[in-house]
Amino acid sequence: MLEHPVSLTNLTITPFLIRLQNFLSAPTMSDNEDNDERQASNFESIIDNMFTRLRIIAVDVEKLQKAKEKLANMQRRNTFYHLLGQEEEVSMNLGSEMGVLRSKYSIHSNFNQNSGPGSEEELDFEELSEDPCNIPFEEDRWHGFFKDFQILSTPVATDPNENRKCVELTSMTNCDHEIKNHLLGGVRCFMVNLFVGTQHDNQSLIVKLRESEISVSKELGFPVASSVMVKISPRHQFTGGFSTQFRQEGKKCVELVQGQKVILTVDRQYSDRCTADVIYVNARFLIGDVQRLDFILIGEDIQLMVRSIHTDHLKCCVARGGMLYAQMPVLFPARCRRFRVSYEELEDLTFAREVGLNVIVSHIVGTPKYLDVLEQAMTAMRCDGMRLYARVVLNEIKGCKGELNWAVKRYDGFLVELAEPAIIPDIMHLCPDAECFMQLTYASKKPIIFDPRVLDEQKLRVDPAHYHYTFYYPDKYVTTCPQPKSTIYFRLLQSAIFEQICPAALANTPYCDRSHTGADSLARAVVTASMEVHAVAIVVIGVTTRMVQKISHFRPQSPILFVSHMRSAEDYVSIYHNVTMLPFRTKCIISHRRNVFLKVIYALAYLVKRKIAKQNDQVILVYNYEDGTSFPEKYIVYKLDKTNFAPHMAESLFPVDQDQMQTLKEIE
User: Fold this and answer.
1) What is the tens place of the pLDDT at every residue in 305-319?
2) Which of 119, 525, 598, 644 has the least C-beta neighbours within 10 A?
3) Which residues does the UniProt record annotate as the domain Pyruvate kinase C-terminal (predicted)?
4) How far is it, in rounded angstroms, from Cα 477 to Cα 484?
């Protein structure tokens, strides 16, 4: 997110973008330079208005982000106060860093001093929760009676793969309560389609998500960070959605009668309010190329004839009638340059940047030239730092020549969907190109978000030969909010099949370390160890997300908890398989070993408080042993002691020999 509005004086208007704005061109001029200046000036005016409007939209999101950071800071300080008897930012100089870690003043809090192995029933790590005086009497009493259980206010069905979901949010339905339930259940990946709904509605949706994160964070006592990806408007032209009244009446289509007067508008306020009289289409840059008496096609049947042209709409009459559905393709005359970057794409890119969303999904893969043009537009709009994904319809990929191999190298990830078959039900058929595409994407360690709704509705069945492509390779599975209660077929099927093929897939993976530091081998060893000891969690302490991505690539069944101060990692790391990020940002400068120590005990406190890890459970800790390395290079398996893990970590993370231990004892 930008700290200050973008100044148009610093925005380079390239010839590429000038050509995109030909609809704004003035009457023919003999001087080409004057013509380019006129077009650039008009384009600056449009982009200036866009930046100003979207900057106002981003104010609420920025306020919530600051509130989240302040809350996370207070929660972190409170946690360390109970664990160490002081805040982690207190400066202590006792002559030796490891002496500080083993000092009774820094390790043993009052709770640990007064707690022995037999006092676990009394402590149970509830010191990190809210004041018991603020908890209702009934809830407090039952918590004391049923150890390690939680009283739920509403019945929630058991979901075996909650953290493998990517919940698609929409402004069409009210899902405030569902968002909070998803966050409480462990979901950390969400998706928003910017083509559906107005910008104000989508901004309200992002604000609701951030508010829910703050609310859940208060309940858990630890910060909550989720990754959000957005689908930008398609470059090709489509109609919008119907109004709320139509949806409430259960109407899915309206009939356009021959001779009827219709307004074709590009105003996004009507993007989800289409009626039989006003139809939205994402074609703002094409209006200037339309001429009177032109024909515009909607779908395969409907034909509109243009009667008059205005700034943001076309007045038409129906030349040939038909049934109008939501998101129908629209075909403009051949003179209209339909394949250039659309105004709606630029607007969506700016919106995503201003509200702090750095993962965008293109509607199609396109061609290398399509991607070049999109990247140039992102650079011009100051969005070149975003991660660019592409939407792929897997069972529509045809051929066996590897035509999508270039896309695997250039895109950062993929949203994989399935088209409905002509015959229902049918078996999912994949061409060699589709299989190769999934294999290469998985081998490249790039996230795959899979939309299984066609499989969940049992319109398609998966052949056992394609189990890896649907149940193993994807990182996340798309679900709607609110989720339909009619079936949970796919979730249960995926969970059962994944547990069966995961160990075999790991064993059959070739021992090939493509890294220069041995990181691939370490990641594989971590996942193998987690399966052998049945670890309840894998805790990764690091700065960058590289090791997390490598561990996630081998698809561990244990959840991965990534503890880092890297703010930008929150935007995308939770998209990877089974990853949850625990932000840890401090204002003070601390040494490497103390930094690792504090992050590890903070992660263990989170696991205990969330009841993910219980007494004597195995937890794998991955961290940097040597100072100066930018990636973790060591891991240990720790048998959790819920009441004494803080002093245990001081001895386990950085072991010392007997001479050093004697010196430390003398210092203490």
Assistant:
1) 999 999 889 999 999
2) 119
3) 520-628
4) 15
The set of residues, in sequence order, having a beta carbon less than 8 Å from that of 432 and lying 6+ positions away, is: 399, 400
Greatest CA separation for the chain: 97
pLDDT tens track for 596-631 = 888 999 999 999 988 888 888 999 999 988 887 778
Q: C-alpha angle with apex 569: 631 to 129, nearest 5 degrees?
A: 100
Q: Do 645 and 566 share a structural domain?
A: yes
* Residues 424 and 475 grouped into a single domain: yes
In terms of Cα–Cα distance, which of 414, 435, 425 is closest to 460? 425
Q: What is the dihedral of CA 333, 339, 345, 347, to 10 degrees?
A: -60
For the stretch 425-479, pLDDT in tens is: 899 999 999 999 999 999 999 999 999 999 998 899 999 999 999 999 999 999 9
Instruction: Tell me the residue type at 634.
Output: K
Same domain, 432 and 540: no
What's the alpha-carbon Rg for the chain, to the nearest Å?
Answer: 28
Is there a contact between 391 and 262 (Cβ–Cβ < 8 Å)?
no
What is the pTM (predicted TM-score) of this model? 0.80
Task: Kindly provide the residue ranges of all beta strands, DSSP E only, lying in 106-226, ordered along the sequence.
Answer: 165-169, 189-193
What's the rounded Cα separation, in Å, for the pair 499 and 517?
Answer: 30
Residues 6+ apart with CB under 8 A from 33: none
Question: What is the spatial distance between Cα 320 and Cα 180, in angstroms, rounded to a whole number?
Answer: 47
Residues 6+ apart with CB under 8 A from 417: 391, 392, 393, 394, 451
Question: Which has the closest alpha carbon to 172: 103, 122, 222, 245?
Answer: 245
Q: Are 187 and 163 in contact (CB under 8 A)?
A: yes
Element containing residue 37 per DSSP (H, E): helix 32-57
Instruction: Flag whether 361 is in a domain.
Output: no
